[in-house]
Amino acid sequence: MKKFAVVAGLTVAGWFVSLSILHSSPPPYTPKRINKAVELLAAGQPIYYQQTAAPITGAYERGKEMASTYADYITYEMEHGAFSIPNLREFMRGLVDAGPTKSGHRTPAVIVTLPITGMDPVEVRANRWMIDQVLSSGVHGILLCHAGSVEAIQYFVRSSRYPSQKSGASADVAEGLRGSGSQSFASQIWGISGQEYTERAEPWPLNPNGELLLGLKIENRHALQNAEQTTKVPGIGFAEWGPGDMSMSMGLQGGPGGRSAPEMAAARKRVLEATKAAKIAFLNTVNVENVTQMIDEGVRVGAGGGAEAADKGRKHTKREMPW
Questions:
Q1: Phi/psi class of residue 242: alpha, beta or left (left: φ > 0; alpha: ψ in -120 to 50)?
Q2: Selection from 77, 76, 70, 78 nearest residue 47 by Cα
Q3: Contact present, 155 and 173 (Cβ < 8 Å)
Q4: Which domains does the chain have, with CATH numbers?
Q5: Which residues contact 145 (CB under 8 A, 6 or more apart)?
Q6: How far apart are CA 198 and CA 241, in angstroms?
Q7: What does the alpha-carbon distance between residue 202 and residue 225 come to, in Å, rounded to a whole number?
Q8: CA pair distance 273, 266, nearest whole angstrom
Q9: Count of CB atoms within 10 A of residue 108's CB?
Q10: Closest Cα partner for 275 from 252, 305, 298?
């Protein structure tokens, strides 16, 4: 009897061990990259963002609040908002201090819109300091507004790179312009050494190992005429068609038809097709009702719609990364 009891006890114990294994939590996700948005796009997964106006006060606390955002990246709006580098740095510190994300990333990715446009290369050259200061704050990308000039966009990409980086070097990819010292604060935000930052702060997919995501707003009728060329500039990772500014540029805002006018549908289609040809991501607004349709059409960056639309989209594409 004693022998039977021992065997039974082992069997029962073994059953409980097996049961505990079956009901244990899956191991935590281990990020493969610093930039969550790039990691997902590289894996063929759509991404979703939440926008915040550049805080005038309380930037650090705003960063802490947004560290747990449902979004894969945060658009930090400086096109029309306050251009304050100290506030941007405080926002980034807040994200770090309240992190990591549910996916294990140190922070959500942060992409900044600038108050300069990409219609004229002279404007980009004259304001290159903005690109340098913003990237030196530890953000993960920049969205260039009114992007219509190939030369301006090439200079934009050049301004985002270090001269020591040669990935994709060609006649269309000139030597980088960022200087030594710009890595000091940014590397602390990313949680890596300064040397590693200079190696990894590269535009993706130009550099497959790059952690910067550069985008274009092709948002007026003049920029639209060059959409097929600007989207193919090496170093650009995504583009959008900016319906608000596009309708204003076409004289449709507030008029008959407005954003639903045939000209607007044609503009959207042209930018979408240009991004597909260039093999970069297309950004478009989504909502709960249309998010799966938009994904199936080719949208890879979802704007608006909130957590519910993002959740539905992630389930549609069977995302495995926690959110």
A1: left
A2: 70
A3: no
A4: 30-280 (3.20.20.60)
A5: 79, 113, 114, 115, 116, 117, 118, 217, 219, 242, 245
A6: 31
A7: 28
A8: 11
A9: 26
A10: 298
| Phi, psi of 117, deg, nearest 5 | -110, 165
Place of tokens 């269309």: 172
Residue whose pair of structure tokens reads 């065997």 in the numeric block = 7
Structure token digits, residue 205: 């997919």
pTM of the predicted model over 0.70: yes
What does DSSP assign to residue 203?
A: B
Half-sphere exposure of 25 (CA within 13 A, CB side): 4
List the pLDDT tens digit at each of the 323 positions of the chain: 444 444 444 444 444 344 444 445 566 899 999 999 999 999 999 999 999 999 999 999 999 999 999 999 999 999 999 999 999 999 999 999 999 999 999 999 999 999 999 999 999 999 999 999 999 999 999 999 999 999 999 999 999 999 988 766 554 578 999 999 999 999 999 999 999 999 999 999 999 999 999 999 999 999 999 999 999 999 999 999 999 999 999 999 765 567 789 999 999 999 999 999 999 999 999 999 999 999 999 999 999 999 999 999 999 999 999 99
Helices and strands in the chain: count of H runs, count of E runs: 15, 8
